[in-house]
Amino acid sequence: MWLRNMQSYKSLIWQHNGDEKTLKKVLLEDMNISVRLLYTLKKENRVLLNEKTKKFHDIVNNQDIIKVELPKEKNDYEAFEKEIKIIYENDDLIVVEKEPYMVVHPTKGHPDKTLANALVYTFHKKGILGKIRFVNRLDRDTSGILIVAKNSYCHSVMTKDDKMWEMDKTYTAVVEGEIGDSEGTIDMPILKDEDGIKRIVHEDGQRAITHYKVAKRLKGATLLEVSLETGRTHQIRVHFSHMGHPLLGDELYGGSMKDIKRQALHCSSLGFYSPRESEKIIVRSELPHDIKNLIETLSV
User: Fold this and answer.
1) Which residue intervals define the domain Pseudouridine synthase RsuA/RluA-like in the entry (predicted)?
2) CATH of 168-267+293-298, one of 1.20.120.1200, 3.40.50.10090, 3.30.565.10, 3.30.2350.10
């Protein structure tokens, strides 16, 4: 059972309820600590059992308290003073709303003023010391929901064994043309193209599965609710382009730039389990103005 303290993002406190186990088993099986993190904790003596340092093969009894001090971490990025909309927050993570056109983390072409830099500023304001770790990802021109881990423990739990792809993710997309069926599934493998940027549907690629429902039929376009069973790079963009219905504004995959200047794609809802919360968390994000305006412009 998880217990809390004043700065829970820095440490983990667990009360063991049940039969006796070794400390190592409790850390790995009950607290879900990764082998990599376990090695660091052991090396730096960061685990206490009933306020005392113990060996990992020592026995944990019913009602014993385990405290893990998470490793101190140094942030990699410079702060960028920009306010970010926070949708949800708990001890282990922050869920933010990413604006379109904003690069997620620094690259050679975009060394600063990225979302990661803005999050450093947000973390400093909140007194959170640590690295910026994204649990999910969005392309630069895709807007919507991003999860940011406050500590290495949260990041490892939420990305281990493809757990992030077990999340209930819903995207809103506007594609060219009229899609006949009211709903459907695209099951086509995706491969990185030779140019290194684009992806293509190819039999040698990784399996990719996209589900969609028609939300509204527009003038020369279709508003869709899209969910992913897999998480390949550019998956939604590639699948609908291959079907002859590229996303509006998606120049890379053949979409028209007439009515919107970036791919009409928004991560609108996300359901997930946070490491120390028992119930599923569902967050939602409103459509940004450019997609709202696009829908209004194309409404019949």
Assistant:
1) 92-242
2) 3.30.2350.10
* Token pair 């026995």: residue: 59
- What is the pairing mode between strands 265-272 and 143-149? parallel
Q: Which of 64, 139, 141, 250 is catalytic?
A: 139
- Written as six digits, the tokens of 271 are 């359901």
pLDDT at 174 over 90: yes
Q: For residues 118 and 193, give the distance between their C-alpha atoms in angstroms, rounded to a whole number.
A: 32
Does the domain made of 2-69 have the CATH classification 3.10.290.10? yes
| Amino acid 110: pLDDT | 85
pLDDT tens for each residue of 71-84:
888 888 999 999 99
pTM of the model: 0.90
Long-range contacts of 121-124 (CB under 8 A, 24+ apart): 121/79, 121/80, 121/81, 121/82, 122/84, 122/86, 122/94, 123/75, 123/150, 124/79
pLDDT in tens, 255-269: 999 999 999 999 999
Angle of helix 152-159 relative to helix 35-43, nearest 10 degrees? 160
| Alpha carbons 37 and 1: distance in angstroms, whole number | 20
Domain ranges for the chain, please list them.
Answer: 2-69, 168-267+293-298
- Parallel, antiparallel, or unpaired: how do β-strands 265-272 and 183-187 relate? unpaired
Q: What is the pLDDT of residues 83-93, one digit of tens each?
A: 999 999 999 99
Three-class SS state of 288: coil
